[in-house]
Amino acid sequence: MSRLTVFPGHPLSGEVSLPGDKSISHRAALLAAMAEGESRVTHFLDSGVTRALLNALQQLGVDWQLDGETLTVRGQAWRSPDQSLNCGNSATTLRLLAGALAARNTAAVLDGSDGLRRRPMGRILQPLRAMGVAIESPDGEHAPLTISQRAAGQQLRALTHPLTLASAQVKSCVLLAGLAAEGPVTVIEPHRSRDHSERLLSALGVKIESQPVADGWAVTIHPHPTDLPAFDLTIPGDTSAAAFWVVAASITPGSRITLAGVGLNPGRTGLLTALQEMGGRIEIIPRGEQGGEAVGDVIVSSADLRGIEIHGERVTAMIDEFPVFAVAAAFATGVTHVREAGELRHKESDRIRALCRLLNALGAKVEEHPDGFTIDGQAGLRGGAVVSAEGDHRIAMAAAIAGLAADQPVTVQGAEMMAESYPKFAETLLRLGGRIRMEEENSG
Ligand SMILES: O=C(O)C1=C[C@@H](OP(=O)(O)O)[C@@H](O)[C@H](O)C1
Ligand SMILES: C=C(OP(=O)(O)O)C(=O)O
């Protein structure tokens, strides 16, 4: 286990070069593996969760090479692996692979860490089965999931699938399976989730329609019986990685930083909007498109923040940002309410519980609700505590950010989790002027 201690009292300045976006890296690697010929993905995120996907692709017989941040993939026919595919801690890997395996009619067992085995999977089992995919779970809800091969020539059925909860992972799983259906497959979400899959599939020539409907937002994929074409793609900077620095510079007095090339997909920018409404000094300079996604530079200076209320579709647009958002709320004055965010209980940790525990330990006034939390912001945090990462990369990084502006240092135990999505987090913090100490300890 590693411990990271962050010392307060040091303003942040300079330019951050962000890692490639996690969601787009997953999709790029997977679609390249389903394509015919050699694809080249630059600014690919090399991290724990993307390595889980790459290792699984290797077990499926896909040939890839990662040279720094450049991923080269030679797409080919997939073979059924001898051993289960270990998706590590990554639900994105497991859920997207399930849809792709169904489309490719490749038998496999999808498994992962104990944490991943606790994540809900009924949400993909149900639509995949309705399409005719033979997929089994030991208890009908959790991994390991076993996908069997269909008889040759047996196509998947067309489907219209309403979701009670907006989820880009479930939507992407169903759309990927839809590539091999005999008719159109439609997913209706109560509101729009991130659309990286739709953008990339449509750039590769797949017919996709996306439109508002009476009960939400509908996305339809039309069958695409031939292989996808190989492609070259440059991945924008990760919006969710940027969020840590947006909060860091906002709460640390005297800070001013520039985040270059941030992905600005509207399904991802909820935290930027929330912080702006809280009084954050955040300037967004659009820089056009990269790989079919809006990108821009974001300049953030420290500011006095006010509490805010977040619920409904705003939750989806900042779904991964709540741990660090809660830190911002503790440094604000006034009350912050988050409601209709019960889905946070089904991430790498129960993030409602974990962030409440974290903020409590650091001296905040926080109340846990079944579907959210309330923070009575005191314009600061006491700090001076050793806190657990709870096996969750985003809790670990949020705790570290709190240490920048607390009265006393904050030590994060289990800081190695940060490498799941952001291996260079501590290095970047140092480069911006933060003061940290990293220690390795024996877990035995
Ligand atoms: O599609 C994706 O890449 C993701 C979608 C979100 O999950 P849900 O679809 O479960 O909301 C998000 O929390 C996850 O980190 C990445
Ligand atoms: C929830 C996350 O990812 P996943 O669902 O892929 O585990 C995350 O990265 O915050």
From TrEMBL:
Enzyme class (EC, first level): transferase
GO biological process, one term: aromatic amino acid family biosynthetic process
GO molecular function, one term: 3-phosphoshikimate 1-carboxyvinyltransferase activity
Coiled-coil zones: none
Top-rank taxon, per record: Bacteria
Pathway as given in its UniProt record: Metabolic intermediate biosynthesis; chorismate biosynthesis; chorismate from D-erythrose 4-phosphate and phosphoenolpyruvate: step 6/7
Reaction(s) catalysed by this chain's protein: 3-phosphoshikimate + phosphoenolpyruvate = 5-O-(1-carboxyvinyl)-3-phosphoshikimate + phosphate
Residues engaged in binding 3-phosphoshikimate: K22, S23, R27, S167, Q169, D320, K347
Enolpyruvate transferase domain boundaries: 8-429
EC number: 2.5.1.19
Keywords attached to this entry: Amino-acid biosynthesis, Aromatic amino acid biosynthesis, Cytoplasm, Transferase
NCBIfam families: aroA
Self-association state and partner proteins as the record states: Monomer.
Name by which UniProt lists this protein: 3-phosphoshikimate 1-carboxyvinyltransferase
Organism: Bellilinea caldifistulae
